[in-house]
Amino acid sequence: MQRRVVITGMGGLTALGHDWKTIGSNLRARRSGVKYMQEWAGFSDINTRLAAPVSAYELPQHYTRKTMRSMGPVAVMSTRATELALQDAGLLGKPVLTSGATGIAYGACAGSAEPVIAFGHMAKTGSLRGVTSNTYMQMMSHTGAVNISLFFGITGRIIPSSSACTSGSQAIGFAYETIKYGKQTVMIAGGAEELSLGPSAVFDTLFAASTRNDAPETTPRPFDRDRDGLVVGEGAATLILEDMDSARQRGAAIYAEVVGFGCNADGSHITQPRTSTMAKVMQLALEDAALSSQAIGYVNAHGTGTELGDVAESIATQEVLGKRMPISSLKSYFGHTLGACGSLEAWLTIEMMRDNWFAPTINLDNLDSECAELDYLTGGGRELEVEHVMSNNFAFGGINTSLIFRRWN
Fold this sequence. Notes:
The chain is built from twelve helices and 16 strands.
């Protein structure tokens, strides 16, 4: 028998705050988290100087040197976001976490950057300076998932997801399927990404990074004719997924139900998106949820602010969901948080559904004529009461995901 899967906790760290009250207020104020990175000024071969770093946060005293020795920044953010979500779910310190009934599905593009530098220095000079017994633990792509397990004593299955921009959304989808088919009762699901110059440099070499260095708040510009590329951000977000019967039995507050997940691959080009498979992944999510396209009330777009991506995604969305579909991109506020974006955007999409208000895409002043006709949210956003929302993400390598959430009444 297939189980129903609900969300009982959510938490994260973002450029616009670390709780929904603060983040929601900033979204309503159309406030951007993008900043000029003065510390990047010395890299003369890189054109972009823009990023969206996480706003300052403090760790509780129990984050000691001993508990953090295997953590780089990406693992620290993963662990702290998870702690916030577990606290929100009322599960911190509960036996279910260490009983084997709780698992982890967590993603990131990669581990931390500093250990990579240390290994590079070793390869170049032969010196082990900077290399410790924990250097690899901080660098490995599943460092977040493993450190979450260690920190909270999780003994169930671990499903690492390292699929670039779909890392967080794949993690949520895999967690949903794990509970749906009875393999775990609770799943910690999410994604994280720490800010480093490397990803920005990669997009810069692809001529896909924004260079509006003198006006950070005006970029990125998803779906806008005057966009000049994306902005890299950082953050972490964790959702606690739980078997519905278990959640009800313990009297947990429920935020939403996960009802659909689709995942596929383009199988064609490593960086150029394919409209047909983008459309197919949305159809897969609808089929999984046993819903018609008319049931979806809002789409959170991947919407990076790059020409190829914006156009392909908009055409695919119209093909599956029609011209009437309300749509916006949260990357206009947070930049592209890479491995975190799927979970961050899922979290905030659910919060917006609960508030009956959906944020607009900021900086969308002149719609690109190549983008398909859709109901692009601009201005002050939109008051909407909907039963189902969809959150889509598309990654390098042609990996596509679509998640559908149902309002919990």
